[in-house]
DNA sequence: CACGCAC
């Protein structure tokens, strides 16, 4: 599928300074490198919503016709041609095409479509699907532009002369540290032998050492995360400034321009030379550009910026060939058993059907949940039984922002290299990370944003490879799911023939030791039992915010969390919520809420060794301590037995598993039908498949 | 209370 013309809202199209648009289909002759845009640059006009009428200065229909007929057979050009045509330096191209280097031959669509624009010096917003080579798309022409800069003499590069901390020509900002490092690795491969110096500036590393390296080696291209970049650029003592900066690149631009980052991005921009004095090109790249950030995009880019879009508006914004499946969980406690069952079932048939080994990322909406899940699966993987199973070689790896940077880097490297592994991850890896051969992306719970889903899913199916996407949600999250993700081609599970038996199992009941699903559930319950009690509390607390906002009813969220803590975690009572928190979250009077002071012992033992001592102010800019306890937990199992008497599973006779929801009439599945027509746990087939957001057809090859 | 982002 090829790119299409970018549509601007009708009101914008009619503005005099409306940005031009570029598309693959607007470039009929791929050989015409010198001026492909002059051939067919199109002022594209279509509304952001395809239901809007098309408006155009020229006939939109005519444009579409021309574009259709000129659609090229291949989207790309050869990298080698760029050197032949003298567009890109031979050393850069050599680094790309040599088999023992990057080994690439042909440009991807986004690379092809942005190259001339960037070399020309225009501001652009480039939108392309995940895994289609956006990084190289901005690195290659940007490095070329530095080489083209007459104030930078290539001959001196080899001797590393005339490079210094003030020679920075381009700055790349990334929303996460790992992504910044990954971009730097690619940039250094590309720059090999050119004399161009690539440096990084990210948090969690020694600031002084990084600065010394920049002072010593110089820097033409600096890649970093917002906090550290702002730090070193605003600190006059660092000696690092960018008086000659010509290029600013925002990778994952929509993320960097959203609420959590935009203020810092603006502060960094204010630290750069005045664009009126030093001409500056700004480039933005992302797979997603939600409507809400377009205003920020316009504010940041020059008025005549170009929007290069390789995502057809009328197609799903991610690979259609990546099958995606929704599984309903009976309770939140069914999530981890379902993950294990999915892994087992795939791996059991992997060998006979010659499938790639299981390499999955499991995404959670809270850090504590990634940690408790990784702990449980790690302890599970230590058992002899597990090691003898088909999953015996699967490594369990955790990554989230509360690990030390050293541990984060190690986790990312281990997962990158692993053949068979499960990465339990927060959204720290959701964007841009390129882990080879990820077979499964599993999302537990409804992601906080539509875009989050797209980027997480994009960790699989990269570079033309296959993959599967799964999302596990509680039925109480159904409405939020529909609103947020309902437009995606996610296939619902069969109500009569469910894919994952553990997803729908009643975990409050004793499990049969004779069925695979019973064994899985028991394994998970026992593994969770050995997890330190404070981690269970943290996990509960960490899910409070997301659950109460993704469930349609707060009471149902509390009920589900309480059931998770008892049936899933084996806790005797759910954690207490302070009156203040209850007030803040609007939980006053909600059934099942345990109001009170947090049990001191949950936190006194072990303190914040997990990095989860709460109550701190986590905001960087607010001067608070984030509660990070560097150094991590050391080895596993150091504090076993902490879950002591709170472990209920020895008792198979307990009649009331809900325990703490007493007083509510919702002990069983009560309350779920309270909304009126919201139906039973599994929506009926008619409900599901008559809904346009549930697409039938296509085989989901489980 | 909820991703990530500096000391």
UniProtKB/TrEMBL annotation:
Pfam family, one: DEAD
Domain Helicase ATP-binding: 115-307
Annotated region (Disordered), positions in chain: 487-517, 592-702
Keywords tagged on the record: ATP-binding, Helicase, Hydrolase, Nucleotide-binding, RNA-binding
Swiss-Prot/TrEMBL catalytic activity: ATP + H2O = ADP + phosphate + H(+)
InterPro entries: DEAD/DEAH_box_helicase_dom, Helicase_ATP-bd, Helicase_C-like, P-loop_NTPase, RNA-helicase_DEAD-box_CS
EC id: 3.6.4.13
Biased composition (Polar residues): 508-517
Domain Helicase C-terminal per the UniProt entry, residue ranges: 338-508
Record-level Gene Ontology MF annotations: ATP binding; hydrolase activity; RNA binding; RNA helicase activity
Listed Basic and acidic residues bias regions: 597-628, 639-671, 684-694
Family: Belongs to the DEAD box helicase family.
Name of the protein this chain belongs to: ATP-dependent RNA helicase
Taxon lineage: Eukaryota, Fungi, Dikarya, Ascomycota, Pezizomycotina
């Amino acid at each position: 599928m090829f790119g299409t013309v970018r549509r601007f809202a009708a009101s914008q199209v009619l503005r005099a300074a409306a940005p031009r648009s570029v598309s693959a289909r607007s470039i009929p002759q791929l050989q015409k490198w010198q001026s492909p845009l002059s051939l067919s640059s199109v002022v594209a006009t279509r509304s952001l919503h395809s239901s809007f009428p098309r408006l155009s200065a020229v006939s939109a229909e005519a444009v579409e016709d021309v574009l259709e007929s000129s659609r090229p057979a291949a989207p790309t050009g050869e990298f080698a041609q760029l050197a032949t045509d003298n567009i890109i330096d031979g050393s850069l191209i050599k680094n790309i095409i040599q088999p023992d280097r990057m080994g690439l031959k042909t440009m991807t669509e986004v690379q092809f479509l942005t190259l001339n624009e960037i070399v020309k010096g225009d501001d652009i917003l480039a939108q392309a699907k995940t895994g289609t080579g956006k990084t190289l798309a901005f690195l290659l022409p940007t490095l070329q532009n530095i080489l083209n800069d007459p104030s930078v003499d290539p001959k001196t590069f080899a001797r590393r002369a005339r490079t210094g901390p003030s020679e920075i020509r381009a700055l790349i900002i990334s929303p996460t540290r790992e992504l910044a490092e990954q971009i730097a690795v690619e940039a250094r491969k590309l720059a090999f032998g050119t004399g161009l110096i690539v440096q990084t500036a990210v948090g969690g590393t020694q600031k002084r050492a990084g600065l010394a390296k920049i002072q010593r080696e110089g820097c033409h291209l600096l890649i970093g995360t917002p906090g550290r970049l702002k730090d070193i650029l605003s600190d006059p003592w660092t000696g690092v400034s960018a008086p000659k900066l010509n290029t600013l690149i925002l990778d994952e631009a929509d993320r960097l321009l959203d609420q959590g980052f935009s203020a810092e991005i603006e502060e960094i921009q204010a630290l750069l030379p005045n664009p009126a004095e030093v001409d500056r090109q700004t480039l933005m790249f992302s797979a997603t550009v939600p409507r809400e950030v377009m205003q920020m995009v316009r504010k940041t880019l020059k008025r005549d910026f170009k929007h290069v879009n390789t995502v057809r508006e009328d197609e799903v914004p991610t690979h259609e060939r990546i099958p995606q499946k929704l599984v309903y969980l009976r309770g939140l406690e069914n999530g981890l058993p379902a993950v294990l069952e999915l892994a087992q079932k795939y791996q059991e048939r992997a060998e006979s059907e010659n499938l790639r080994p299981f390499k999955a990322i499991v995404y959670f909406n809270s850090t504590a949940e990634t940690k408790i899940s990784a702990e449980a699966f790690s302890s599970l993987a230590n058992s002899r039984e597990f090691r003898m199973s088909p999953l015996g070689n699967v490594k369990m790896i955790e990554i989230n922002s509360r690990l030390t940077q050293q541990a984060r880097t190690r986790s990312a490297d281990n997962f990158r290299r692993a053949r068979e592994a499960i990465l339990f991850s927060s959204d720290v890896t959701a964007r841009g990370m390129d882990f080879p051969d990820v077979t499964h992306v599993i999302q537990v719970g409804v992601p906080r944003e539509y875009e989050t889903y797209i980027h997480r899913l994009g960790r699989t199916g990269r570079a033309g490879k296959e993959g599967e996407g799964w999302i596990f949600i509680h039925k109480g999250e159904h409405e939020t799911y529909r609103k947020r993700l309902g437009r995606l081609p996610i296939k619902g599970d069969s109500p009569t023939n469910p894919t994952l038996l553990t997803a729908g199992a009643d975990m409050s009941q004793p499990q049969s030791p004779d069925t695979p699903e019973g064994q899985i559930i028991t394994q998970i319950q026992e593994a969770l039992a050995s997890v330190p009690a404070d981690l269970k509390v943290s996990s509960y607390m960490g899910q409070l915010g997301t659950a109460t906002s993704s469930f349609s009813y707060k009471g149902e969220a509390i009920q589900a969390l309480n059931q998770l803590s008892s049936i899933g975690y084996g806790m005797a009572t759910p954690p207490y919520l302070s009156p203040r928190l209850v007030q803040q979250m609007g939980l006053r009077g909600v059934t099942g809420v345990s109001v009170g002071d947090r049990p001191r012992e949950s936190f006194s033992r072990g303190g914040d060794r997990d990095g989860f001592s709460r109550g701190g102010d986590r905001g960087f800019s607010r001067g608070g301590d984030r509660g990070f306890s560097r150094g991590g937990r050391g080895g596993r199992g150091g504090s076993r037995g902490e879950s002591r008497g709170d472990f209920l599973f020895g008792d198979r006779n307990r009649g009331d598993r809900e325990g703490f929801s007493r007083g509510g009439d919702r002990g069983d599945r009560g309350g779920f039908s309270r909304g009126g027509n919201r139906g039973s746990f599994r929506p009926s087939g008619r409900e599901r498949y008559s809904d346009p957001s549930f697409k039938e057809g296509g085989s989901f090859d489980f």
